[in-house]
Design a protein that fits this description.
This protein is mostly beta strands. The chain has one domain: 7 Propeller (Methylamine Dehydrogenase, Chain H). The chain has two helices and 30 strands. The strands form eight sheets. It has a four-stranded antiparallel β-sheet with strand order 1-28-27-26, with no helix packed on it. Strands 2-3-4-5 form a four-stranded antiparallel β-sheet, with no helix packed on it. The termini are far apart.
């Protein structure tokens, strides 16, 4: 791939992905979300819980902050000159990575930019806080380490042959996924690559850790599960019929995935099985995060949606959970009440 080509052309495959040509599962549930947050004017690319806010980044070049308690828009953060592709919390600051090749740090009290990190030569695709480092991955194929105290670059990891699209921390390692179809583990103390996992036949878009396992989602429509201790493949989760754009950990061995096929699915990585599948409301699900008693999705149709795992109302998808984990304490964001229904750690 020619990384010097137009960035918009490079970004399009991240959204469109691949159609794996599988038939639609007739058991997929049709649900209405509990709440739809409207405000972005283009694709919602990333989500993160940021203190009392839910933060969302978009193709529209903005970061929007939504008050969790009221589920209303509080602030629009402007400053990036390209799409906002990734978000991460760094202490009291919110970090955002962009098509404009920079990382911005925002003070969520003053709502202003406090630092701009420059070094990548193509757009910043992913961010992850690992120890004292803010780690960034880019279409320039590199991973950069930024000291969270000085905000200075302290190292560059090279090894991927194409864009670094996702990052995760697992068992003391940094994990990176790439458009080169591989997942790598890095030792940040030595700066050396420990192992390369191969098996995907398409771009790796997403990583998540559940039950000690590392999971990767790909344009080949599969989720592969890796055992970091043995450095071996543990299994393959199949069900999606479009690119798996996003993964997020729910609790214990459970994770959720979002796809070009418009569905959101919940998986048990210990038993290697799908627990539930429902439609993410008509368009590709690009990003997911967990927020209290809700699973939150960002979509190609510019909206953010909240799905309930606790209350039996519109958007409820948690019937499968009660049989597995009926006792626990969860914070209900909408009504500010504590419910003893389900446990999301």
């Amino acid at each position: 791939m020619d990384l010097s080509s137009n960035l918009e052309d490079l970004a399009i495959p991240l959204i469109r992905g691949a159609d794996c040509g599988k038939e639609i599962d007739e058991m997929i549930k049709d649900l209405e979300p509990c709440k739809t947050l409207e405000g972005h004017t283009s694709v919602v690319l990333c989500l993160i819980v940021a203190g009392k806010y839910l933060a969302s980044g978009s193709f529209d070049k903005t970061v929007r902050l939504w008050e969790i308690e009221t589920k209303t828009q509080k602030q629009v953060l402007r400053g990036h000159t390209g799409m906002v592709y990734c978000l991460e919390m760094v202490g009291r600051y919110l970090a955002s990575g962009s098509e404009d090749k920079t990382i911005r740090l925002w003070d969520l009290q003053s709502m202003k930019t406090v630092a701009v990190l420059e070094g990548h030569t193509e757009f910043v695709a992913c961010l992850k806080l690992v120890g004292n480092y803010l780690v960034s991955g880019s279409v320039d194929t590199t991973i950069r380490l930024w000291n969270t105290e000085t905000m200075q670059e302290e190292g560059v990891l090279k090894g991927h042959e194409s864009a670094v699209s996702c990052l995760a921390e697992v068992d003391g390692y940094l994990a990176s996924g790439s458009w080169d179809e591989s997942v790598k583990l890095w030792n940040l103390q030595t700066g050396c690559e420990e192992v390369t996992f191969k098996g995907h036949t398409g771009w790796v878009f997403s990583l998540a850790v559940a039950g000690g396992y590392l999971a990767s989602g790909s344009s080949d429509c599969t989720i592969r599960v890796w055992n970091v201790q043995t450095k071996r493949a543990e299994g393959v989760l199949e069900g999606h019929f479009g690119s798996v754009f996003c993964l997020t950990h729910l609790s214990d061995y459970y994770l959720a995935s979002g796809s070009l096929d418009t569905t959101i699915r919940v998986w048990n990585v210990q038993e290697m099985k799908e627990e539930v599948a429902f439609r993410g409301y008509g368009d590709a699900t690009v990003c997911l995060t967990k927020m209290g008693n809700y699973l939150v999705s960002g979509s190609y149709d510019n909206n953010v949606r909240l799905w309930s795992a606790g209350e039996k109302k519109n958007g409820y998808f948690g019937e499968w959970w009660s049989a597995i984990n009926p006792v626990g304490l969860v914070f209900d964001v909408g009504s500010v009440l504590y419910r003893t229904l389900f446990k999301f750690d």
